[in-house]
């Protein structure tokens, strides 16, 4: 089993609902409170396990805004696990999820420096490293209905841009989406083999000049004037 996320860059609107839901669930979850500093002041700060970056791609008038959520990729060959001097960072053999043992973490930051995705954050309150757990305490909770055993970010996403599943199962939704949409790993050249993938934006519709309603109206007006 290889659990992870497929994230659709074509439909993510950058609303930050996933980041907020992630923080809310995990603050009361298995990794303990996620500290906030000066939350209502001029320069609020704190520990977040999921952040959204926004980019503008292509040139006007065919440019497109792409919102890219970033969290732990749960790499198959995770550098953060390799460098951890205490063994606090580890990858589970049963499902491939990368976790941090909060009792063994000494907050040395080596894992954070080794992660090329910026997916780890040192919690200033606990002095330990925090990261996405794929809501491991939620996805295995048999007291929840089966359709709710998903990461909080997946359940909350209003555009269903985030899909959770088993990449080892060729018939799972994430595997099908990867095949159909050409899912991409982030920086595969580094050799860490991240599990999470991104579904690239579809090509925008190139409308011919005058193809819009306003353009058609202008064409009609011009024909009338020339008569």
Descriptive report:
The protein has 227 residues and is an alpha+beta fold. The chain has one domain (3-226): Alpha-Beta Plaits, CATH 3.30.70. It is built from seven helices and eleven strands. It has a three-stranded mixed beta sheet with strand order 10-1-11. The chain has a two-stranded antiparallel sheet with strand order 2-3. The chain has a two-stranded antiparallel sheet with strand order 4-5. The protein is globular and about 80 Å long. It starts with a strand and ends with a helix.
What is this structure's SSE topology?
Blueprint: E1 3-8, H1 17-27, E2 36-37, E3 45-46, E4 51-57, E5 64-70, H2 79-83, E6 89-91, E7 98-100, H3 110-114, E8 121-122, E9 129-130, H4 136-139, H5 152-156, E10 162-166, H6 173-181, E11 197-199, H7 213-226
Parallel strand pairs: 1-11
Antiparallel strand pairs: 1-10, 2-3, 4-5, 6-7, 8-9
Average predicted confidence as pLDDT? 89
Number of strands: 11
Whole-number total of structural domains:
1
Low-pLDDT runs = none
**Integer-rounded radius of gyration:** 22 Å
Please count the helical segments: 7
- Globular, elongated, flat, extended or rod-shaped: what is the shape? globular
SS-based class: alpha+beta
Instruction: Please identify the top-level CATH class.
Output: Alpha Beta
The spatial strand order of the largest sheet comes to 10-1-11
- The CATH topology comes to Alpha-Beta Plaits
What level of helicity do the residues show?
Answer: 10-25%
Beta content comes to: 15-25%
Largest sheet, in brief, is:
3 strands, mixed
CATH architecture classification: 2-Layer Sandwich
Report, as a whole number of angstroms, the end-to-end distance.
71 Å
What series of H and E elements makes up the topology?
A: EHEEEEHEEHEEHHEHEH
